[in-house]
Each structure stands twice: as structure tokens, then as C-alpha cells.
């Protein structure tokens, strides 16, 4: 079957099998940030944004992306570098294997919640597993990033 969708802003037309997972299609298209972890929709490693909402691509049929916009970490490098610096400063990146899915959920959360509390951050990111660390470093890094963005915005408002 043929599907058409946007991948990181680029229109894609692809012939797929009806049972193909979005994870497999994205990796075929060179999006290696999308990782195969648990294959049971429990770890968050395969998270991508579909119409700006987080989706676990290991349990999402590629055919369902027809006509939609899909964004992977490859399509958000500038944003990833900015937040990644905050993760590194808090020691929250350790091996880095979970970071792409984790970052995609952060991006989705920031679009949905204007000023998330620590509890809301933890709730939003509960579907991401990290075997190297607890989530204290990640939570601190997000809170620090949000504070940085507020200060940055206040600076823009003065100009």
C-alpha cells in the first residue's frame, strides 16, 4: 500500500506493507534516533511526534501516518542541542540511549504545558525508562531549562 506523509518537514511517498510499524519505516528512512527498546510500548525509546503529539512508534502502524506530519529528533537538532546542554550539566545523560525518546516527550510537553510544575513534568515523562539514572537529574535539567527560557523571554520583552 502507498502512503504519503511529512517526515521532519519533507514530503515522503512510500510503498509499505500494511503491517509495517512506524518505527521500522522511520529507521529505513535514516531516522536512527528512533530506537527499538522493549517493543511493548513501555520504555519510550521509540517516541516520535505525530501531529505534535508523542507516539510510541513501536506499536503504531506506519499506515496510520498517512497524510500526517511526523517529527523525529533528526528534525529538531537545534532544540535538542539546547535542552541537551541542560541534561549534561545535571549528569542526566549518562549513556544517552534513552535521550532521543526522552527529548521528544519534553518537546511535546513544552507545546502542551505552558509552565509545568515538577509533578506535571514527572507525570508527563513517566513513560520513559532510563536504566542509568533516576529521574532527578532529568527533572532538574527541565526545571533549569524552563527557568532559562523565562529569563530569555523577559530579556526579549524589554527590547
Mean pLDDT: 88
In order across it, which strands form the biggest sheet?
A: 2-1-5-3-4
Total of domains: 2
Q: From the alpha carbons, calculate the radius of gyration and give it in angstroms.
A: 16 Å
Q: What portion of the residues fall into strands of 2 or more residues?
A: 5-15%
CATH topology of the largest domain: DNA polymerase, domain 1
Helical content (DSSP H or I, runs of 4+): 40-55%
Task: Detail the topology: elements first, then pairings.
Blueprint: E1 2-7, E2 10-15, H1 22-28, E3 47-50, E4 53-56, E5 69-71, H2 77-89, H3 99-112, H4 118-124, H5 136-158
Parallel strand pairs: 1-5
Antiparallel strand pairs: 1-2, 3-4, 3-5
Helix pairs in contact: 2-5
Describe the structure.
Helix 2 crosses helix 5. The longest helix is centred in the C-terminal third of the chain and has 23 residues. The protein has two domains: 73 residues, Roll (Ubiquitin-like (UB roll)); 83 residues, [2Fe-2S]-binding domain (DNA polymerase, domain 1, Orthogonal Bundle). The N and C termini lie far apart (53 Å). The mean pLDDT is 88. It is of the alpha+beta class and 159 residues long.
Amino acid at each position: 500500500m502507498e502512503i504519503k506523509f511529512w517526515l521532519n518537514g519533507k514530503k515522503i511517498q512510500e510503498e509499505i506493507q500494511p503491517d509495517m510499524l512506524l518505527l521500522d519505516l522511520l529507521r529505513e528512512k535514516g531516522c536512527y534516533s528512533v530506537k527499538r527498546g522493549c517493543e511493548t510500548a513501555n520504555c519510550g525509546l521509540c517516541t516520535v511526534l505525530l501531529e505534535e503529539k508523542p507516539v510510541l512508534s513501536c506499536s503504531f502502524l506506519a499506515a496510520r501516518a498517512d497524510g500526517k506530519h511526523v517529527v523525529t529528533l533528526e528534525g529538531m537538532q537545534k532544540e535538542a542541542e539546547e535542552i541537551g546542554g541542560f541534561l549534561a550539566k545535571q549528569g542526566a545523560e549518562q549513556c544517552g540511549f534513552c535521550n532521543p525518546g526522552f527529548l521528544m516527550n519534553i518537546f511535546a510537553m513544552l507545546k502542551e504545558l505552558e509552565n509545568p510544575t515538577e509533578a506535571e513534568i514527572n507525570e508527563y515523562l513517566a513513560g520513559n525508562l532510563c536504566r542509568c539514572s533516576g529521574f532527578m537529574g532529568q527533572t532538574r535539567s527541565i526545571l533549569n531549562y524552563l527557568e532559562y527560557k523565562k529569563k530569555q523571554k523577559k530579556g526579549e520583552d524589554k527590547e
